[in-house]
Design goal:
Layout: H1 3-7, H2 12-20, E1 42-46, E2 49-52, H3 53-71, H4 77-81, H5 83-105, H6 112-119, E3 126-127, E4 130-131, H7 133-143, H8 147-169, H9 175-186, E5 188-196, H10 209-218, E6 224-225, E7 228-237, H11 238-243, H12 249-263, E8 268-277, H13 283-302, H14 307-314, H15 318-321, E9 326-330, H16 337-343, E10 351-356, E11 359-369, H17 375-408, H18 414-420, E12 425-426, E13 430-431, H19 443-449, H20 452-457, E14 461-467, E15 470-480, E16 483-484, H21 487-519, E17 533-536, H22 545-553, E18 561-566, E19 572-581, H23 588-617, E20 620-622
Antiparallel strand pairs: 1-2, 1-20, 3-4, 5-17, 5-19, 6-16, 7-12, 7-13, 7-15, 8-9, 8-11, 10-11, 14-15, 18-19
Helix pairs in contact: 2-8, 3-5, 5-8, 5-23, 8-23, 9-23, 10-21, 12-17, 17-18
């Protein structure tokens, strides 16, 4: 069964493995090999295994970093500090472990040979079309993973993936259900509306001081000014060092002379061939084909001008034979490797014999297209490479010097910045929560700034690597503890909030009363309806989703029908539905979208059922205090 893994390696498995080297893992290791010390405390039991405190804390950090990278400046650290986030992470870990145990129980074990076969097909680990152990190690080192750990994770992912794949790929679709949903999705309704302006109830709204006091006492937690700090900081980065370097003209010229071919487009060569076919594995046929090919090679070498005629007469490649054997121009990677190796090692006009799985090729190199770019077009690229290369040579030493000076001269960042020609920058007041620009979008740096020691000592914090080849040193210069805002400070905000709530409630009440009258066939005085408009789920015509949903849910058995919805500007909209129009012919694009959506929904439902079965068969117990924050 698992032999199919190798055959499908270019499909979902390869995508899965590529994901493993770019995002935090959905599956995680809980073996003692991957945990140590106090982190071995088991906080959740899953069958015969368990989730350790260390594994849980590591996953919290990975998920937080993933969200930070995905959301960028919109990331709010308060999300990952919440109890709900911590609970969801632990729940997901126990569920995934239950799936792993189910896969193991089903015998879905993945051997070392199968892992090796899969890895060899992953483009990210290939060089010139072949698996490169060096590139594989380099990729893993960049992510901070050992080969043993990475392959352990793949083994878990693959075994669960094999178990899940038939469920996700095999969802069956009912044509009756699809027809019904398509009909509902394509339905349109004729409407008109009347808006009740909030100004009509303004005189009836009254917020008393005691109401503000009561609200304040019930919502004090909403009016706490969080702890804040001001800090000075300095950044040492490879990019910054590179920008300060100016390569000499001689360095630029020397680099160009040595690397010009690599700077331009890939080298292309044009060639012609005469193919003598021979079935792969048929020794006798291949021996006979070789002999014929060698004889033809000798003949065309003696009379080069006859190559095209011989190709037309003898070549068994119909596509090129008609063109005198010409294959046109091509780059590396476009031909069979033995053929390509021969072509890219020949001189123009040279002829040579090459063997591939198709048979024997008499090759003539027709030309080499020189695509070496002029220096002016690649000067900026060369300068960048030289700057980075020179900066890389000195970055490690500069980072060590930076760290030492920040630590040894802990009362100020100036000695370190003077020595390395860096600048000291100062932040405005900032809190742990909210959005922060770089470098304070790093959770690790924020944790350091808001640590008790940093705030109390007002000394330099040990430099922190906020991203690859970027270090930040910081020192707290001012601190403002969290405090409860007074009623006086927030009274205006609360008054505005209560006024808006009371107004919305009164306008909605008035609107609902009018809807009740309209439903009884009575139209209140003063109602002015808008022009008629046709709307549908696919054609909302500018209406918000909530209003469209209310309109499409209105009972069409007795028309006109009336529904109401609060609008973003505080008004209340009464919508009158006067006609229902069904699509006589289903839109093929809509039907295709419905089919795809239903299949996805069925697949998700089946996957949830599979997960519930796995959880039911594996006893899951979350220990008391598991969600406590113990970093």
């Amino acid at each position: 069964m698992l032999e199919a893994i190798r055959k499908r390696a270019q499909g979902w498995l390869v995508k899965l493995i590529l994901a493993l080297i770019t995002i935090p893992f959905a599956l995680w290791g809980i073996d003692a090999y991957f945990s140590s010390g106090g982190g071995n405390e088991v906080i959740a039991e899953v069958g015969d295994s368990g989730v350790t405190r260390q594994a849980y804390n590591d996953m919290l950090k990975e998920q937080a970093n993933s969200m930070r990278q995905a959301m960028g400046p919109n990331f709010d650290p308060a999300i990952v500090e919440s109890a709900d986030f911590r609970e969801n992470v632990l729940k997901a870990m126990t569920e995934e472990e239950a799936m792993v145990q189910e896969a193991n129980a089903a015998g879905l074990q993945v051997s070392d040979e199968q892992i090796a076969a899969i890895l060899q097909q992953v483009p990210a680990f290939q060089e010139n079309g072949k698996f490169s152990p060096e590139l594989y190690k380099k990729r893993l080192e960049k992510r901070g993973y050992s080969e043993k750990y990475y392959e352990y994770l793949i083994r878990r992912e693959v075994s669960v993936g094999i178990m899940r794949h038939p469920i996700l790929a095999g969802a069956l679709l009912s044509s009756t259900s699809a027809d019904l949903v398509t009909k509902i999705a394509g339905q349109r309704r004729e409407i008109s509306w009347h808006d009740i302006n909030p100004a009509t109830v303004a005189g009836r709204v009254n917020v008393a001081d005691k109401d503000i006091q009561t609200y304040y006492e019930a919502h004090k937690a909403e009016y706490v000014e969080p702890e804040a700090v001001r800090a000075e900081y300095a950044v040492l980065s490879l990019e910054q060092m590179a920008n300060a370097i100016q390569p000499s003209e001689k360095e630029i010229q020397d680099y160009y002379a040595a690397n010009a071919a690599k700077l331009g487009p890939p080298e292309t060569r044009s060639a012609s061939h005469i193919l003598i076919e021979a079935p792969e594995g048929d020794i006798a046929a291949r021996k006979q084909a070789r002999a014929k090919a060698e004889a033809l090679l000798a003949a065309v070498q003696k009379a080069p001008r006859t190559f095209a005629d011989v190709a037309k007469r003898e070549s068994q490649d119909p596509g090129s034979a008609a063109e005198g054997g010409s294959l046109g121009s091509f780059e590396r990677g476009m031909m069979e490797k033995p053929f390509e190796d021969a072509v890219f090692s020949m001189k123009p006009g040279e002829m040579r014999l090459a063997e591939t799985k198709y048979g024997f090729h008499i090759i003539r190199l027709d030309g080499v297209q020189d695509k070496t770019p002029p220096l002016a077009s690649v000067r900026a690229q060369i300068e960048m490479e030289l700057r980075r290369g020179q900066a890389q040579k000195h970055y490690a030493e500069a980072a060590e010097n930076f760290s030492n000076l920040v630590y040894e001269q802990a009362a100020s960042l100036k000695p370190a910045t003077d020595a390395l020609k860096l600048s000291v920058q100062t932040t405005d007041w900032m809190t742990r929560q909210g959005k922060h620009a770089a470098p304070f979008d790093s959770a690790k740096l924020l944790d350091a700034v808001f640590s008790t020691d940093a705030i109390k000592s007002r000394q330099n914090v040990e430099p922190i690597e906020t991203s690859r080849n970027t270090m930040v040193a910081v020192r707290v210069i001012d601190h403002r503890p969290a405090r409860q805002k007074s009623l006086t400070e927030v009274s205006a905000d609360i008054r505005g909030k209560l006024l808006a709530e009371q107004t919305a409630a009164l306008v909605a009440k008035q609107g609902q009363a009018r809807i009740a009258e309209l439903g009884q066939g009575k139209e209140p005085a003063g109602i002015g309806w808008s022009a008629f408009k046709m709307i549908g789920r696919q054609q909302p015509e500018g209406l918000d989703a909530k209003t469209v949903q209310a309109i499409m849910r209105a009972d069409a058995a007795k028309l006109p029908a009336y529904v109401g919805a609060a609008m973003p500007d505080g008004s209340y909209r009464i919508v009158r539905v006067t006609r229902v129009v069904e699509d006589t012919v289903a839109n093929p694009m809509l039907r295709a979208a419905v089919d795809a959506g239903l299949r996805q929904a069925y697949a998700r439902s089946d996957a949830v059922a599979q997960l519930e079965l796995a959880k039911a068969s594996q006893k899951i117990e979350i220990k008391s205090g598991a969600l406590d924050k113990k970093e």
